[in-house]
Design brief:
disordered N terminus; 344 residues; 52% strand; 4-stranded antiparallel sheet; Methylamine Dehydrogenase, Chain H; globular; mainly beta
Length: 344
């Protein structure tokens, strides 16, 4: 999921000295606004605001950290932004409404899920040198989220309406295999094994409060783990949305809207280690409003995890050792996806 720019894979971090939070920035897409907030994880303050990005969905970064690539749902394009100035370099037209983007480990291609029904449904490929869309891989269903495997050999994309996940061979740029589910596929997290090869995919499903475990080598679901249902009483739609593996590879973190929490599991055992309560809003005579957590990301030293609080227009910073809330950071309207950039 992360790489030298932190947007693709954290494999390189596992074999390197952990980087400090001072080398990172947290990017927050404000979906109901037209801005992206950039947080300094040392001060937990917003230090930059990128404007003119209506309905931003996801953010990835160039290997040298000089460019920010943003999918814009409102205008069906990939916006290329200069990181330092926040100014637009180019708007790249896409084949349809974009959802999550991902960048290959070598930084040469960006893949974008197109959230449209067939025949428009597909995965767009953008060349980062020419900044042009060079190909669309057709898909049989509406595509939502996409990730590059830690070894850089494959991309894994999910379809909510099609209820499948597809593995794309990045050398041939063709689907290699897919797995069907009984529920809509939401977000995913890809885990590597000790040898660096992909071991498992953790898949969140729309009507399941937990995650499915897919064995990558077997190409099949091998387990389905349910999250705790307490505390209850929070309004929610999708019960669980957003997950990730810490850069040190030791823990798996997953968000729960049902309990307004983030849960943490050990790896590879997937043993529940604890829960962190997220902010909530209590109004007289009304059901308690949870934060509606959407996404999470980490500092490269595996000390802090950040969670977007969609309904409260804020981001939670959580100490990963103590499992305590360290800060609540005000951001723009309806923060959704958040990403970590490791500065060069």
């Amino acid at each position: 999921m992360k790489r030298k720019c932190w947007s693709v894979t954290f494999l390189w971090i596992l074999s390197a000295i952990p980087l400090a939070a001072s080398t990172a920035r947290i990017y927050v897409t404000n979906f109901a606004g037209d801005t992206i907030d950039v947080i300094d994880p040392v001060t937990n303050k917003v230090v930059q605001v990128i404007e003119g990005v209506e309905q931003p969905h996801g953010v990835v970064f160039s290997p040298d950290g000089s460019r920010v690539y943003i999918t814009i749902e409102f205008a069906n394009l990939l916006k290329v932004v200069d990181r330092k100035t926040g100014k637009t370099i180019k708007d790249v037209p896409l084949s349809g409404r974009p959802n999550l983007p991902v960048i290959t480990n070598d930084g040469k291609r960006i893949l974008v899920c197109i959230a449209e029904n067939p025949p428009v449904a597909g995965v767009d490929i953008i060349d980062t040198t020419s900044l042009e869309r060079v190909k669309t891989i057709p898909m049989k269903g509406w595509m939502h989220d996409i990730y590059v495997t830690p070894d850089g050999q494959y991309a894994v994309a999910g379809s909510p309406r099609g209820k499948f996940a597809v593995v794309i061979d990045l050398q041939t740029e063709q689907p290699a295999w897919e797995i069907q589910f009984d529920k809509d596929v939401q977000t995913m997290t890809v885990e590597s094994g000790p040898d660096g090869a992909t071991r498992r995919i953790f898949v969140q499903l729309r009507d399941f409060h937990g995650f499915a475990v897919v064995d990558f080598a077997k190409r099949e679901e091998v387990d389905r783990i349910k999250l705790p249902d307490e505390p209850s009483g929070f309004r929610t739609g999708v019960p669980s949305h957003g997950s990730g593996i810490a850069p040190d590879g030791k823990t798996f973190w997953i968000l729960s809207r049902v309990t307004n929490s983030v849960f943490v599991y050990s790896l590879p055992e997937l043993k529940l280690l604890g829960r962190v309560a997220l902010p909530e809003l209590k109004l007289p005579g009304r059901t308690t409003i949870g934060s509606q957590p959407e996404w999470l990301t980490f500092t490269p030293d595996s000390k802090t995890v950040y969670v977007s609080n969609t309904w409260l227009n804020s981001v939670s910073a959580i100490d990963m050792e103590t499992l305590k809330l360290a800060a609540i950071i005000p951001v723009g309207q309806s923060p959704h996806r958040i990403s970590t950039l490791v500065l060069p």
